[in-house]
Design a protein that fits this description.
48% of the residues lie in helices and 16% in strands. With 147 residues, it is an alpha/beta fold. D-ribose binds next to helix 3.
Length: 147
C-alpha cells in the first residue's frame, strides 16, 4: 500500500513526525508538501493529495493542517474523495469500516503526536465492512454524481 501525505504549514511538523513513523513501519509514502513552516494555503495541498488518491498514484491519503478542518473540506471537494477528520481512535476505525474514508485528516495544532500515530496506525489497519455501509457510501457517490 502506498500512502500520500500532505499538509500546510500548520500541519508540517506533524507531517514530518508521521513520515518517520511510516518509514520505520516500512510503509511506502509520497510527500505532497508543504516542505517548511512558511505560510501556505491548505487547499493547494489538499487538492494535490486528493487528485493523487483519485488517480491511483497513491492508495490512501493523510491530510494535515492546523485544525484539520480546512484541508478536510478542501479534500472533500474532489470527486471520489471521502476525507474524515479524526481526533480519536474510535472515529479513525469507523471512518474506514463504515465510511470507506480514503483520506484521513488530522489537526496538527489539536492533537498530540503520540495520539496522531495511534490514529494513523488504527486507520491504516482498518478495513471497509461493505454490506449496508456500501449502500450508504454509494448514496454519497450519487449525490456527488448528480451535482
Ligand atoms: C493556518 O493558519 C490554518 O488556518 C490552517 O492550518 C487550518 O487550521 C485551517 O483549517
Amino acid at each position: 500500500m502506498k500512502i500520500g501525505i500532505g499538509s500546510d504549514h500548520g500541519g508540517y511538523e506533524l507531517k514530518e513526525y508521521i513520515k518517520e513513523y511510516l518509514y520505520e513501519e516500512g510503509i511506502d509514502y509520497v510527500d505532497f508538501g508543504t516542505n517548511s513552516l512558511d505560510s501556505v494555503d491548505y487547499p493547494d495541498y489538499g487538492e494535490k493529495l486528493s487528485r493523487a488518491v483519485v488517480s491511483g498514484e497513491v492508495d490512501r491519503g493523510i491530510a494535515i493542517c492546523g485544525t484539520g478542518i480546512g484541508i478536510s473540506i478542501a479534500c472533500n471537494k474532489v470527486k471520489g474523495i471521502r476525507c474524515a477528520l479524526c481526533e480519536n481512535i474510535y472515529s479513525a476505525r469507523m471512518s474506514v469500516e463504515h465510511n470507506n474514508a480514503n483520506i484521513l485528516a488530522l489537526g496538527g495544532r489539536v492533537i498530540g503526536k503520540d495520539l496522531a500515530i495511534e490514529i494513523v496506525s488504527t486507520w491504516l489497519d482498518s478495513k471497509f465492512q461493505g454490506g449496508r455501509h456500501e449502500r450508504r457510501v454509494n448514496k454519497i457517490s450519487s449525490i456527488e454524481a448528480n451535482l
